[in-house]
Design a protein that fits this description.
It is built from 20 helices and four strands.
Length: 540
């Protein structure tokens, strides 16, 4: 980490006092002058929240799997072609972003130690530290997830464990997974014991008890500690106060899941995205009514994606309109066909949405995640990059901004999948099947009764969980990790890109990679190794 953490943090300039003469300059803002009250410590915590992001994990997961193809507005991308080097920008951004967050957390913890709170201030003071330690734990976990070869092995090399503010010339080695996880568990234990649970309509955008429950469930699942994952998943399902968001639609003329072609014309949504198509275009008008931010006919599930309702979100990273707008990563100006799609949905993923749910139930994700202005080819095997444009609409913006969306880090759907996987591992296939049925039922917009799947063995059950995770958690940063940790057990050998997508992306060598490929672990950034002699991951 030598020289890296201090370079990453803008505030390092203000708080570092180790220059050649160690002179305190007049007016210098150092720790002693900043951390003089609980209010000031809270302000620093607010800045720390702003450091947190999962944007790079989401996009690297899309590019290195089968979620996207190259859209009509972009040329071939090296990462999407599986051309992954130690200089890869996404890997570097994940590394730098989370160590930047960790640095802010450590500066807050160090600075807060200079202030002694009153008895009345102590609960708030400890809660601030709890949030900082939870954020620090989460960033360490994200780094382990992408840069460790095997999260289930405590002996495997992990990442740098940083629980202090380093000096510019300090080398920090890679710790083992076991060492980092022990540290994460310590931070979470402190957070759980000292957190004042936030309240109000935006409470889910701050560290809360649901964050801790969901974080622990995911962490233990990835570590293959299924009993602990199940305990925390049950805790989240039972005590979160949330239910699966519903997809029920009350507008007329809404098309079926299997409708491959939507009637087009002057009101097809390409240029009139916020203008009512009128009754002359009944299907487009139905799609428009559900798509809108303030439509009374929009289901809770849709309102969740336009940041108009919390829905089933356990924790989200706040991304207001005046911040960096993540959704422009997929679509330059907006999630409609004239909005400059840089990446569109991979055809095999679209095909998974283009199926009903059984029992007369239709899958709303077909219309929630694919914009109504998309062009769906009737001959996809021969479609060009411009003749079929499946516009990704999972980040449609929010009221006042077409490219601004909060990042949904933990949702109740994922917790259902975690519990289902744990039940499968313990032999309770029927219990797992019912959990999958419940999620599918919540995605039906036409009524009907979804029938629980029947699993003949563990592999078929895990394959169904992997399929449902693929559909429900697409474009949220899960597919890359899911294939790595679950693919072999589920009988899935590799990524599942559509052949014509690969041709259009100039990504034909290879079209797909196996789930055991070394590229399912990201490289330690070369710039880090240049200043801090860390052991590189295999294959690089």
């Amino acid at each position: 980490m030598k020289k890296r953490i201090l370079i990453l943090s803008v505030l390092a300039v203000f708080f570092s006092c180790s220059d050649a003469t160690d002179i305190l300059q007049a007016g210098e803002l150092n720790d002693a002058r900043l951390f003089t009250s609980v209010n000031n410590i809270q302000l620093f915590l607010n800045e720390t929240y702003d450091r947190l992001g999962t944007e790079n994990e989401i996009i690297v997961s899309s590019l290195l799997t089968d979620e996207v193809a190259i859209g009509s507005g972009l040329i071939s991308n090296e990462t999407q072609r599986f051309f992954l080097l130690t200089t890869n920008g996404f890997a570097s951004n994940i590394w730098n972003s989370h160590y930047n967050t960790i640095n802010y957390c450590n500066r807050l913890i160090r600075g807060a130690a200079l202030y002694t709170p009153t008895a009345e201030e102590t609960p708030q003071y400890n809660s601030i530290l709890a949030q900082a330690r939870a954020l620090r734990a989460f960033s360490h976990f994200q780094l382990l997830t992408y840069f460790s070869t095997d999260l289930s092995s405590d002996a495997a090399p992990g990442v740098m464990l940083v629980d202090f503010v380093p000096t510019p010339d300090q080398d920090i080695p890679r710790s083992t997974n076991g060492e980092v996880f022990s540290f994460i568990e310590s931070d979470l234990a402190f957070a759980q014991a000292n957190l004042i649970n936030p309240t109000g309509p935006t409470a889910y955008k701050f560290i809360n008890r649901n964050f801790i429950r969901a974080f622990k469930a995911r962490m233990y699942l990835y570590r293959k500690n299924y009993p602990q994952a199940l305990i925390n998943a049950d805790d989240a399902i039972t005590n979160s106060g949330l239910v699966l968001s519903t997809s029920t639609i009350t507008v007329a003329n809404f098309p079926s899941t299997s409708a491959t072609t939507v009637p087009n014309g002057a009101a097809n949504g390409a240029n009139t995205i916020n203008v009512d198509p009128t009754s002359a275009f009944p299907i487009q008008r139905a799609l428009y009514q559900v798509d809108q931010w303030v439509s009374a006919g929009s289901p809770v599930y849709r309102k969740m994606w336009v940041d108009a309702a919390q829905g089933e979100i356990l924790f989200a990273i706040d991304k207001p309109i005046n911040k960096i707008n993540f959704s422009s990563t997929y679509n330059t100006n907006g999630s409609y066909i004239t909005g400059g799609p840089l990446y569109d949905m991979g055809r095999t993923l679209f095909n998974a949405y283009n199926q009903d749910l059984g029992g007369g139930a239709q899958d709303y994700r077909r219309w929630c995640f694919v914009d109504r202005s998309s062009t769906i080819s009737t001959a996809p095997d021969a479609a060009s990059r411009t003749s079929e444009v499946i516009v990704i609409d999972k980040y449609p913006g929010k009221n006042g901004g077409h490219t601004a969306n909060d990042l949904k880090v933990f949702r109740l759907s994922e917790i259902y999948f975690i519990k289902a996987e744990c039940l499968i591992r313990s032999g309770n296939l029927a219990g797992a099947a019912d959990l999958i049925r419940q999620v599918r039922q919540a995605r039906s917009y036409t009524g009907g009764l979804v029938v629980a799947p029947t699993y003949s063995n563990v592999a078929s059950a895990l394959a169904d969980v992997l399929l449902e995770r693929r559909k429900e958690l697409s474009f949220e940063g899960h597919r890359y990790i899911d294939l790595k940790r679950l693919g072999t057990d589920a009988g899935v050998t590799g990524t599942d890109r559509f052949a014509q997508d690969a041709v259009n992306s100039s990504a034909t060598s290879p079209v797909n990679i196996n789930v055991t490929d070394y590229r399912f672990t990201l490289p330690i950034p070369q710039r880090e190794i240049n200043v801090n002699a860390l052991t590189q991951n295999p294959g690089y």
